[in-house]
Amino acid sequence: MKHLTLLLFLLITPLVKAQDVTLDNIATFEDKTVTLCETVTGTYQTKSENKVLYLNFGAAFPNNAFTVVVFQKDFKNFSYDLLTLKNKKICVTGKVVIYKGKPQIIISKEADVVIP
Question: With pLDDT > 70 as the criterion, what percentage of the chain qualifies?
C-alpha cells in the first residue's frame, strides 16, 4: 500500500503547476510571500522627513495595480537609487499586504529585488 501511495504521488505531482503571480491576481496572495516580475511604471519618493519610496506597477499612481514600498531607514541597504528602476522589468519578492484596497510588498534589502 505504501508503494502504491508513493507511485500515485509521483505520477500526480508533475501535473500540479505552481500558480503564476501576476498583477491581475496578486491580491489573492495576501499574507503570502511571493515573487512578481513586472515593469515598474512609476516611481515616487516623499519629501517628508521620514521618506518613503514607492515603485508602482501596472500604471502610474493613482491608477497603479500594485506597489513596492521602501522606507528611508532601508535606503542604505541598496547599492543603487531605486528611483532609476522606472520602466525597467524587475522581480520583487516579499509578503503581500493589502493597504487602502491595493496590494503591496514592503521591501528592506537589495536581495528582495532582482533585475533580470
Answer: 84
